Amino acid sequence: MCKRVSLLAWLITNWAVPPMRRQPGKVLWLPIRNSTTALDWLAKARIADGQFGAAIELLSSAPADGDEDLTLDLALAYSESGSFDKAADTLRAALVRSPGSLRISSALATVYVQSHRYQDATNLIRVTLNAHPNDVATQLLYLRLLVLQDDDADAQPLAQKCCPNTHRISTPFIFLCYRKR
Question: How many domains are contained in the chain?
């Protein structure tokens, strides 16, 4: 995966720039700075290579048009570098811009869990689940958070609701579904 992403980033970097503007050994950022796709792939390549600081630098200078993919990339780079507070701040700001975004809510909940803020994650996903009651992925994330916090009273009814509708359930969920029968 890493080599594939790096190859795509190299192709975007070297072939998205007109030939007369290319300089050997130099990366020309100006022509691709306005390309969200190019920035997304370059950021993903840097993150995959473990260059979190470089990804943060690249994405921090990106246009602030609120692109969800770039925001998620920036939050991932912050998170992988251990800057959970900056990742959470980035995602909270994005959630204000797009309050109904399932991807941003899920990413923010993940950052909360990584920083051991389980109750914040649970509260966020509870609100998200109220806005998207039929989203199975959100239901399962909420169930995982409830199980993580040993909240059997809330987890049991949700597990019974989710288990019959989900084909790929892990062993802890199956155990939770049937342990109180």
Answer: 2
What is the tens place of the pLDDT at every residue in 89-128? 999 999 999 998 999 999 999 999 999 999 999 999 999 9
pLDDT number for residue 126: 94
Largest CA distance in the chain: 72
Whether residues 114 and 60 share a domain: the answer is no
% the chain with pLDDT above 90: 48
Local structure of 64: helix, strand or coil: coil
pLDDT given for residue 115 in this prediction: 95
Residue 131 lies in a domain: yes
Collapsed DSSP state (helix, strand, coil) of residue 174: helix
Provide the domain limits for residue 131.
Answer: 105-181
Q: Are 89 and 114 in contact (CB under 8 A)?
A: no
How far is residue 30's CA from residue 99's CA, in Å, rounded to a whole number?
A: 32
Q: Is 117 left (phi over 0), alpha (psi -120 to 50) or beta?
A: beta
Domain membership flag for residue 91: no
Do 13 and 68 share a domain, yes or no? yes
